[in-house]
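User: structure tokens for this one?
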Amino acid sequence: MESFRAIILGSDDNAYGTARSFYEINGVKPLLVCTRNLPVTEGSRILETEPVPGIDTAEVFEREIPRIIAREREKYAKVFLIPCGDYYSALCINAAAKLPGLSDNPFITPELYEKLETKDKFALLCEEFGVPHPKTAVIDLEDAPADAESLALGFPLVLKPENSNGYEYLHCKFEGKKKVYYITDGEEYKRTLNALREAGYKGRLVAQEYIPGGDGALYVMNCFSDSAGKVRLMSLARAVLEECAPGMRGNYAALITRYDRGIYAKIKAFLEAIGYVGFANIDLKYDARKGEYYVFELNPRQGRSSFCTHAGGMNLMSALVDPPEGTVCSEKAGLWSEVPKCVIKKYCEDDSLRAEALRLWKTEGAYRTLFNKRDRALRRYYYSLKRYWYEVRTFKKYYKGKNG
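Assistant:
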């Protein structure tokens, strides 16, 4: 295997899980480049960090990242640049277009990125290639319809920022802020728009029809496509629980990896038809009424919960380092969890799914991104343990009203 080093952008759970995946391949500590260290990576023994103030801005990124990559190329045959946030993804895609060969992993073109990120264009793209997608309306906040009924989506409806992980919304502060809003009537729609306006949010909003189903109807798929646009690895997982704290809704708390030949084939055909390259994170929901998966969004990076691929017997990063022959799809059922077993036992409302999760925990254990026997740095480990058990209090406080 050629020597390589991963440069990872960010210092959150996604960054730690990605760093851990690379470290398990070759034992070389990945380099995390970030604005500042967050507790989940601070003091880690399996990675190195290089805080660069302003690295999440185009000016600093385009100046510093080529310099850092050039420095690492003096020591390693290959250097991979891995974004762990949507704004980092956009910076990488634009920089790779300006500087061909910037890193040794592929990025999609800015043109394709714009189609994926602009929700009305993404809806048209799904329609063109026969991928089910919920009815969608994109709203400019400044001239949003005063009456939700005019959107013709019915109630309840789903309302969310066009990019809830984007820089603008992440830095927008107000009481009751959520990643996803479940709107039950016209008055709640008006209150939500007013709160966003008063907080100074200037971005667009996405309104979508509500696909019925609880947490167990949610699915996520992580994929890798090589530089020729061929899908090399796919891993599907079903949600056992979704996070319920207001600022965390839309993130997964526990997942079980799944095999479904039909959705693997459909997503593979879609990615290869649009010329997709690199990592992809796809959020889906299964509509039991129609027996069909609906694609909600496609993010041009691995997901925050992508370490769950290990539960399915796969290391997502290995597809980049040493691509398999053909397309490999995860088949093994395994449990990944960010919450204690007692939370799953109490709050998972699907009896069969809860039983499966508890059985897997008993027989195989749970894969947990932040708990790593090779990385017991005291401060980092204490923070991870404290946050893990704090989930008991979080679910007790927020679970009942999580869809409100």
